[in-house]
Amino acid sequence: MSEAEMSPAIERIVRKVDGYEILDALTTKIRGSEFATLMLEIVRRRAGVLASSNVLRQYQDDRFTQPSRLDSVVCTRCS
């Protein structure tokens, strides 16, 4: 994908991390399952540094964040 084909949001993020080469590599050099594994690790690390005091604020501000419908007690027993 050329820089001209990127959405403004992707362009902003790629510039922020100086990641044009990273974006190309993630797009063309790894399989979908490898990408999914990488994204799960990224989410795990981000969750690990998120302070509990920020969880409510993130829930209120982030349209992609919502409470789980699953009972946490049941989830803990299953894992």
SSE map:
Blueprint: H1 8-16, H2 20-28, H3 32-49, H4 52-61, H5 72-78
Give the helices and strands as they follow along the chain: HHHHH
- Radius of gyration computed on alpha carbons: 17 Å
Quick one: overall form? extended
Content-based structural category: mainly alpha
Q: Which percent range fits the helix content? A: 55-70%
Summarize the biggest pleated sheet. none
User: How many structural units, i.e. domains?
Assistant: 2
Mean pLDDT rating: 84
Oligomerization state of this entry? single chain
Residue share in β-strands: under 5%
**Number of distinct beta strands:** 0
Secondary structure tally, helices: 5
What is the first-to-last residue Cα distance? Answer: 40 Å
| Poorly predicted runs of 5 or more residues | none
Task: Describe what you observe in this structure.
The protein has 79 residues and is mainly alpha-helical. The chain folds into two domains: 1-30, no CATH class; 32-63. Helices cover 67% and strands 0% of the residues. It has five helices and no strands. The mean pLDDT is 84.
Keywords summarizing the entry:
79 residues, single chain, 5 helices, 2 domains, mainly alpha
In brief:
With 79 residues, the chain is mostly helical.
